[in-house]
Amino acid sequence: MSRLQLSAILGLLSLAASAGVIAAAHAEPRPIALVIHGGAGVIEPSRMTPAKEASYRAGLEAALAAGYAVLERGGSSLDAVTAAVRTMEDDPQFNAGRGAVLNHDGDAQLDAAIMDGNGPHAGAVAAVRHIKNPIELARLVMEKSPHVLLVAEGAEDFALEHGVVLVPRSYFRIEARERELEEARAMPAPSAGLRVSAQESMGTVGAVALDRAGNLAAATSTGGLTNKLPGRVGDSPLIGAGTYADNASCAVSGTGQGEYFIRQVVAYDVCALVQYRHMTPAQAMHEVIHEKLARSGGTGGAIAIDPAGNIAMDFNTVGMFRAARDSRGRREVAMYGDAPQAK
Q1: One of 87, 204, 222, 226 is an active-site residue; which one?
Q2: Beta carbons of 206 and 37 less than 8 angstroms apart
């Protein structure tokens, strides 16, 4: 090869490299997105006062802001869903953490799960009574143990071993939840023998997120059902039922009648339709929520997001408290079947 030919080749390589740098500089950054829910079928519109509606919207907006701020500064989807759910756990108007409903014995028994779509990996806790933020303990189970699900005293012993400060059971006994329990106890028992309040206490909270690295995550936290039997565990901490995330498909967090979500494996079913039948999250959610779940008599809803940033929020109840924000300009908060409020 002559010196002239070598010089020409090097020049072409240099131009190609420069073009690559320019293209990279002008390439659109990967999308980020966060979706949250504060429960499905929570409060009938006729019972929603303007002040209460404003309070719920503010709570949703605070959780959305907390999680999205993580994504904006380059944080992981795991950190984003943790921040969003922790914010709602600290807000007593949601049925999780501080505002968890009470079981038949007057105790809050808390469930939570988190799942990292990169792996995937998962952690969950159930029937804990002294954990201020169950979602953080679920993440500890995922990251600091070989297990997926820890329950009751075993989960709380694990929390103490990892420096988690326990709170007294009285922390969860807020006046509104005590009143709901008394109302549920006073109602005639059905043939099953126990009156649980499914309509007013489906305030499970959850979040799904997509970060700059293209990783998905899902998190869900709940107090379950008012007047439930002690030891009852719903779908939220059961991977595949109320919570699921896999970078190969989507991330889902559900809310509703937990027993139905468990039987139908709702969260995984949505992701399976996305992965194997190549549906969009919205298409998959509609099939699972409005057809499969509804046929079995189950009510509730879910939120989902896929690796491309496509968002779905769907429900077959009167409403679902929900909010979403992404880097493409979408920002909204909604409560019922009406059009979401853009922000």
Answers
A1: 204
A2: yes
